TrEMBL record:
This is Phage gp6-like head-tail connector protein. It comes from Hyphobacterium vulgare. InterPro entries: Phage_CHP. The lineage of its organism: Bacteria, Pseudomonadati, Pseudomonadota, Alphaproteobacteria, Maricaulales.
Amino acid sequence: MTLQLVTPPAAEPVTLAQAKAYLRAGYDAEDELILQLVRAARERVEAETGRALITRAYREVLDDWAVPGRFVPPGQLRLPMPPLISVGGIAFLDEEDAETEWPADQYAVDMDADPGRIAVRGRSTFPRPPRAVAGIRITFDAGYGADPEDVPSALRDAVLRLTVEGYARREAVGNSPLPLSVQALLAPYRRVRL
């Protein structure tokens, strides 16, 4: 199972102006550093929650449908990085890497579920891929939206607080424990794993 980023987010959930205002940085000399810290903070929030904040495209390559913790027998698969916006397509690869598109009328997409999922229509199980390794390719878009305002305010606030933490300590945002205030902001968005 491999999750590949196809199209990165076009924006960050916090703008440079918002980060500078929060930091009370009225000068431009450290703009690049602040942008880097915002990006690192967004990546940390996404890693902690398992969610995509800003819209982007993914490709997931699977060997089989039975992904532990995500496969719901007999015919549902939860997709990673909620919230799900759309499924661009599902394809099967054969031994010669020839791709065959699975017709969209044979599966349903549930974008309202958290996480989003695909489900088989008219049969009890998913079709077997033609090859045993990396035979399934799913393309999908995920995220809250293309603009910072689309992201829930608690998640944007967590990005701001982690940006401040990184700016104050001048170390990588991912190297330190999460502040309690950030943990509290992220708690409702974390997925519980059983």
